[in-house]
Design a protein that fits this description.
It contains one helix and twelve strands. It is mainly beta.
């Protein structure tokens, strides 16, 4: 997992597939003004979900992990709390891995909860189970970048 300010994203270009390409798109567009949508930057290998999001109660935010994609999550207009736990430490699988949706869900509690301010990003690798969206009833815009794991 990586957490940092968007202005420092260039420090991670070698470590995070697709991050440099996304930042070019980010810098060339006003993502607060674009409609909520999915934009493919490199086919199914790199795409951006622009979401007008309503945060949930923590009890409704399950840990999840992915095998094929790295998640880059960016609260754009307001802060969001996210949970984290090492995927290998998750014991309570509540929904087996769905290959079509690239997601598995867990009933475990996060090891860490962190407040992620607007203008920051979090990179969740396949080894990172995460519970995003903890922001009870708060409405905000967020970006989720999906970058295929390079094999």
């Amino acid at each position: 997992m990586i957490v940092d300010k968007l202005e420092n994203a260039d420090l991670y270009y070698d470590s995070v597939p697709g991050l440099e390409r996304f930042m070019q798109f980010f810098n060339d567009n006003d993502l607060e003004e674009l409609p909520a949508c999915k934009i493919k930057l490199d086919g199914d290998d790199l795409y951006v979900n622009i979401l007008d999001f309503i945060g949930k109660k923590e009890k409704d935010c399950r840990l999840e992990s992915h095998k094929d994609y790295i998640d880059i999550q960016i609260p754009l207009t307001d802060s969001e709390t996210m949970g984290w736990k090492s995927q290998e430490d998750c014991q309570d699988v509540t929904a087996e891995y769905d290959e079509g949706k690239d997601v598995e869900f867990y009933g475990d509690a996060p090891t860490i909860r962190m407040n992620v301010p607007a203008g920051h990003f979090v990179v969740f690798f396949p080894s990172d189970a995460h519970s995003p969206g903890i922001a009870d009833g708060k409405q905000y815009r967020k970006i989720i970048v999906k970058a295929r794991v390079q094999q």
